[in-house]
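Researcher: Quick one. two chains, 759 residues in total.
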Amino acid sequence: MNKILLVIRREYLTRVRKRSFVVMTILGPLLMASAFVVPMYLATMDDGDVKVIKVVDETGWFFGKFDNTGEYIFNYSASDLETAKTELSESGEFALLYIPRRELTVPASAVIYSLRPPNIGLQGYIKNVMSKEVETQKLRINLEEMELKEADRERAMKLPELIRTNISLVTMRIDQEGAEEQTYTEVMMAVAFVSGLIIYMFIFIFGAQVLRGVMEEKTSRIIEIMASSVRPFQLMMGKIIGIAMVGLTQFLLWVILTFALVSVFQFAFADSMPGPEVRMAVPVTAAGPEGEAEAADAGAQIARVFEIIDSIQYDVILLSFLFFFLGGYLLYAALFAAIGSAVDSETDTQQFMMPVTIPLILAIIVANLAIANPDGQLALWFSMIPFTSPVVMMARIPFGVPIEQIWISAALLILGFVFTTWLAARIYRTGILMYGKKVSYRELWKWIMYRK
Amino acid sequence: MALFIADNVSKHFAGHTALDRVSIRVPEGSIFGLLGPNGAGKTTLIRIINRIIGPDEGKIWFRGEEMHHKHIAHIGYLPEERGLYRKMRVGEQAMYLAQLKGLSRKTAKARLHEWFEKFGMSGWWNKKIEELSKGMQQKVQFITTILHEPELLIFDEPFSGFDPINAEMLKKEILQLREKGATVIFSTHNMASVEELCDHIALIDRSRKILEGKVKEIRKEYSTNTYRIVFNRMNGPLADILGNDFIIVDESEDEEHSCASVRIPQGMGSNDLLRRIAGRIDIHAYNEILPGMHDIFISAVKENQGK
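Model:
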């Protein structure tokens, strides 16, 4: 047992310390971040037009709080949301900022409707103004209460914590008819496609590393020494697990670094907007609710969207992503290890690579279709077959998949990788010691069936 | 006592038999030569001893116990095809291999530094294997083979790739290891080094063991009863003196002495030859000619293949 840990440790450390790993770790997030940031930046590189943003503020808290800049003019409108939305496409205004009223709580969310995606600088500015304003109001309310209760010290100590407010700002693209749920679907599609694609790429990149690692041991002949120290199975699993950990490390670093980079850029853009003045005490002008039923209806609609977004089962998505990520990798890595053990040189790998890569490529194709139709027969079946399920299932999960389907698919995937590992182990232990022989499928079959 | 015993071991691969009921006994503390032509099955046998592969039939024993995975910690193996992780640093690699053989980090490190010192490799710790010359790599590999102080050492062509000075050093190390109690299985095609080092041998040909025993006894067994006489010629040719029953195999002459190899026919002994020549020629030296391992190898293999 100890030996497999030693093998894992070596496989992990030698790879993580490589210069190429460090370069990829830094380059990856730069590329990914630039995929986010460049469009943002381009969006802020303005055409010079002054954009008008209509503000529909049901709370009345933010009247006059958004300052006009050279770029944006904020128009405060008293009309209700539906009217404003229909007007938006006609009026030539850039966007509609809607701040719904929430019963019992302070306003903490807003929606931007626009025909074109609003840039991040604007979003940052709006968030900034809103949170400052809400904080000011909260502080004021709290201070008033304190006066009533006469110097409650502990409360005063907690004030900054109490008033911290996170504004959630949702951007909604609307078409001419004012249908807005599109963005939500797009988010789902993006999550689905990206997670499927990451799994696909991960399997290919790190599967190839397993293949090369096994071949390196074979061609450098160290295998003979290794085989006289550890069991071939330990060596194979040690390598597969070690490389999986390299992959996870890289993935984690990418996520953290990308996130960090994007946030840095976001801050940078947000700061380029004029800073809002901090006012200590402003009277709340309660919005005269005109057409109350209408407003309540729109409010409910918005609430529903927030609900949907809140209801995305992030835990389910995240857990299944990790599971299918690892499961898919383990299934294919074993096959890659078997190929590496059976051949003498890189050129010989071709004939065996085909049957391994075809299901993978098929998976990404089906995943594309599954995103369009997540509950179709095709998507269903391919999300059950272990060879394609990691990619296809991940493409379905963000749209919501019955939990029992996920369990069945997961169970099948476990069976799948137990099977491929068993198969690979049998090929591996014979293959690694076999030299100078061009191996055919017939030969592999004999190795698999060989009784000991 | 035998440290290692293979008992009727057979191994079949798809289409051919690599070992056919081979039995060998490797006495403790011996240097055991494992000989045979290319493709005879030596490597297969060595792999079975190392437990890299298992025998299809037969049993193998280590120190009186049936061989088990735990025993590989007591075996050191230097394969003919040397190999190390080329991109890894020398020290790290040696530490890794030592730990896989069950040494603790601390022990491995201490012993490695000792050996590096001894072999004049102290500055190599952080070099990559691929930066070393072939001879240097061999040294690293040798050290990793013996670092865990195995009871049984298997050297497959250990001298290939070494220059004469390093080969001599290696030979000394092998002899020292034996003195410290290790048993050595030594596979080579270099018969001179077999004569020099081995006290037991087994000869494998065409998947079968055809010869096994103490080197001295085997040479005796293969002796053709031939004696070498160095003498000064008296009167008349040697053939006349010897008569018809003794056969002169070889005769030569230089300025000082004559030299002849004489085979004694069956039923007669060395004394009969001495008696025949005593007083008739001036004898300077007289000794038995034992066949070399080289000749024994060839004649045994030919005999086996002639069957």
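Residues 2-220 of chain B form a domain with the Rossmann fold fold (CATH 3.40.50.300).
Researcher: Thanks, that's what I needed.
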